[in-house]
Amino acid sequence: MVKIIQYIDNNLDTELSLEIVSEIGAYSPFHFHRIFKLIMGETLQNYIFRKRIEKSAFYLSLRKSLSIKDIYLNVGFSSHSDFNKAFKKYYGRSPSEFRKITPEKFHTISQMHRKNGQVDTVFDQYICNIENLLNWSTMNLKIKVTDLPEMNLAAVMSLGIANVESSFNILIDWAKEKQLFPRENLKMISVYHDSFKVTSADKVRIHACMPLNKPLEKQDGQVFPETLEAGKFIVGSGELTLAEFEQSWVSLFLWMKENGYTTRKAFPFEIYHSNFKEHPEGKMLVDFCIPIN
């Protein structure tokens, strides 16, 4: 399933029929349709549609240099009218209207279904203004721009923020069986394959990971290999509670824009250096890592 999801995400601009996608996972179309819905909680076509719309919203928000035509072709729509209609149905406003809303004005996007079935998009405002966010990051995060090496990881996929802890438990049980855990100075990692800006919290894909001394050769049950490529990152480090994570990400992305950096095509991630359950105030040492050009 991980292989299939990666294939979909990397080929949103191509035809993604049930027959084509099921063949990637070596399933029959009949059985794959049922298996996909059972695991992902939605049909294959709903998932593909959602990913196309959410990726276009991400580009509209953060890739101002791309034209709307470039964006809709990049995510698999063939015409502006089809894209405009689909986007407005999902987010409650047209792509051009959405693009005018700058990232500084909101930090998350959610949908509320009215009684008449219409979708009303709610843009939650920042809990404080830009100046206060920048001051908060200065006081609570040590921020640097640095190169990070390639990391070979063992990973377990979590669908939805509520399932991350159970994914880490699966990973730790696997590591104990392989005599890889506990290990001195072991760091656990969360890799974000979706953005909370455009994907609801119950659909966000987060990979619960741990670094390995050598690459995992093949998938082992629910544990699969993942590689974080070497590159330049903005790293914000601090000792924080879980409740402060969202504000940390928001302020760090704001710091990135204020300092003239742009994201590159790679996934942001968190590195945990301690366990919040072992801290009297529920805090943990964490690095928030944003890949940049």
Percentage of residues assigned to helices: 25-40%
Assembly type of the chains comes to: single chain
Number of domains: 2
The CATH superfamily of the largest domain turns out to be Regulatory factor, effector binding domain
What share of residues are in beta strands?
15-25%
Helical run tally = 10
Biggest sheet: strand arrangement: 3-8-10-9-5-6-4-7
The name CATH uses for the topology of the largest domain is Multidrug-efflux Transporter 1 Regulator Bmrr, Chain A
TL;DR?
Helix content is 38%, strand content 24%.
Helix and strand layout, with pairings?
Elements: H1 2-10, H2 18-24, H3 29-40, H4 44-62, H5 68-74, H6 80-91, H7 95-99, E1 108-113, E2 119-124, H8 130-140, E3 142-148, E4 151-159, H9 164-177, E5 188-192, E6 205-211, E7 224-228, E8 231-241, H10 245-258, E9 269-272, E10 283-291
Antiparallel strand pairs: 1-2, 3-8, 4-6, 4-7, 5-6, 5-9, 8-10, 9-10
Helix pairs in contact: 4-5, 8-10
